[in-house]
Every structure is written in structure tokens, then in C-alpha cells.
Amino acid sequence: MQEVERSAPTVEEALEAALAELGVSEQEADVEILQEPRSGFLGIAGQQATVRVRLRASKAAEGGDVDEQAEVAAEFLEGLLEAIGIVGEVDINQVEDSTYVEIWADDDPDALGLLIGKRGSTLESIQDLVRIAVHRVTGERCSVLVDVEDYRKRRRAQILERAREAARRVQKSGRQEALEPMGAYERKMVHDAVSEIGGLQTASEGDEPERRVVIRRGS
Predict the structure, then answer these.
(1) Interval 33-66: pLDDT, tens
(2) Which of 50, 132, 186, 205 could form a disulfide with 7 if both were Cys (CB 3.0 to 4.6 A apart)?
(3) Domains delineated in the chain
């Protein structure tokens, strides 16, 4: 399978479902938003978001595009820091298969809390702003990730550990288990981690911001 289309109440949920079916990360796919979600009159006959996700023929071909996106993101973040009065630095780094645009706020605890937010909520809002800025300049869907003082990388390690531990418990007991609420990016990490174990299945359940991954034995 090289291409899928999926619909959901939000673009991120539709993207999450499509990536999970293809078994790839967002950095390994081309994403086309076919339909933005729309509310119908009095909540009736609304339209869900629809995305088309294609496997990239060659990951090597994406290097130049990601480099350009990273430069756009870095420039945007430097302007953001200046606008909100935080002294810090912005760096671009490649970690495994992902390109990170990193903010280092000179070890100011107040600044770090402001930029990260509860459970990374502010960081995800900054990521959304970067997505808009990158798309506006390049016309492409943003593939770079924003991080603050390695918060996202540490959080990734924690989530993968919890997901694998929960998966092993479900595998042993047969009882399904729900993880803590997460954003779409983190839920995708859980889907990928559990799929590597085998004999299990995952599903995202609930409404944002309380949407979470449920792990259960495969049928």
C-alpha cells in the first residue's frame, strides 16, 4: 500500500489514522489536506477533515526541502523569542530521522515553563504556529519539529517506555489498558511502538484534549 485517504473530525486525527495504517512517520510521507473540517448549520451536516497520505519514493530526496523548512522555522522562532522578551538561542539538529529546531532559553526556569506549558501544551501551540509559517513560505506541510531544552526528546523516551510496559502487561493479562491523554504526535509514537510488539492492537479514543491510546489484544 502506497497511499491512503482518511477522514476524522480534525486534520491531525485523520493524519494520525493514515500514518498508522501505512506504518510510517510523517517525515516518511507526503501529506495532502483534501478537506478542512467544517461545521454545519447548527452542528448538522458538517464535514470532517480528509487527508491523503503517500509514501515518499525516496527519503533522500527530501533533504533540501527539510533544510529550507528548518531555516524558515528557525527564523520564525527567533522572531517569536524577541517578541515575547525571552533571551535564548535557536539551533537546528538532526536526531535519527527527524529534524529538530531547538530553543535554548539560557536556563531561565520561568522562560522554560512559559515555552513548554502544562504537558507540553504551549510547545504544541508553538509547533502549530511554525507549521503555518513554514506552509506559508514553502507551500509544503511542515516536517520539522520544535523542541525546548530537549523536552520533546525526553518526553518521547518516557512515552515509548510507558507504551512498551503497558503493551507487555496487556499481552500477559489480556486486559486492555488506556494510557494518559496525549496529542496526535505522541499517540502516533504509541501506535508505532506497540505495533512492533505484535499480537496487540491500538486505537485512539475520547475527545481532545483528553484523547488517549487504548491498547488491547488483537482479535
Answers:
(1) 888 877 655 555 568 888 898 887 644 344 458 8
(2) 50
(3) 3-57 (no CATH), 62-149 (3.30.300.20), 154-217 (3.30.1370.50)
